[in-house]
């Protein structure tokens, strides 16, 4: 039961929602869509750059590589683990949605926590990777919202 749920949460953090949610909001003719897309676009550009630079300069090995006898349940898309890109992107999306639309804060952050936890349960990240990713995504979303005049 845990493995399929972890896989589902992990897949939900693959980035599809970052495209699907703006399309859905456009279909709903959201008056806040322009602000949301501006903050999300700025934040994703900054987050992906920082994520890539950190991951490829720090080069922290994944649990399967670092812990003898450990096997992950999925194959990671890249070689290094710190920070968790899934966690960073999930917390970035949750923070941006909450900043622009308010609403079910707990639900969005519970989803982001589920994505982060799933990456640890699947064995592709250490807990610190996901904590760092979550803090990074949240901080970048807050910074970009401030730059865009949303805060």
UniProtKB/TrEMBL annotation:
Cited InterPro entries: PAP2/HPO (IPR000326), PAP2/HPO_sf (IPR036938)
Enzyme Commission identifier(s): 3.6.1.27
Superkingdom of the source species: Bacteria
Localization per Swiss-Prot or TrEMBL: Cell membrane
Domain Phosphatidic acid phosphatase type 2/haloperoxidase: 39-145
Hydrolase found in the keyword field: yes
Record field: catalytic activity: di-trans,octa-cis-undecaprenyl diphosphate + H2O = di-trans,octa-cis-undecaprenyl phosphate + phosphate + H(+)
Transmembrane portions of the chain: 32-54, 89-111, 131-150
GO CC annotation terms, alphabetical: plasma membrane
Keywords annotated in UniProt: Cell membrane, Hydrolase, Membrane, Transmembrane, Transmembrane helix
A GO molecular-function annotation: undecaprenyl-diphosphatase activity
The keyword Transmembrane is annotated on this UniProt entry: yes
Enzyme class: hydrolase
Membrane topology: Multi-pass membrane protein
Protein name in UniProt: undecaprenyl-diphosphate phosphatase
Source organism per UniProt: Kineobactrum salinum
Organism lineage: Bacteria, Pseudomonadati, Pseudomonadota, Gammaproteobacteria, Cellvibrionales
